[in-house]
Amino acid sequence: SNVVRVVREMVQRQVAAIALEDQEWPKKCGHFEGKKVIPMQEHAGKIRAAVAARGDSGLVIVARTDARQVLGLDAAIERAREYYRAGADVVFVEAMQ
Length: 97
Known about the structure:
The protein is of the alpha/beta class. 45% of the residues lie in helices and 15% in strands. It contains four helices and three strands, in the order αβαβααβ.
């Protein structure tokens, strides 16, 4: 998958961290309206794949959600918790306001 390929490349380049976000393509600034997010379990699967691909490299995986504006605060927090359970080292809820 693209996630596995990118993570392996970042590990080879000794990158410290990557951020994976749950916005649909094309991405928009987190404070702009009109964003769409992919299903929570789809993004959690990408995080699990990234965790497996990094191995013991120490690469930090940041999981970002843009769901607050689209689905509300409770849904954004639920996503952040799920992404943490999937193995993200850091979770970031964009545009908390």
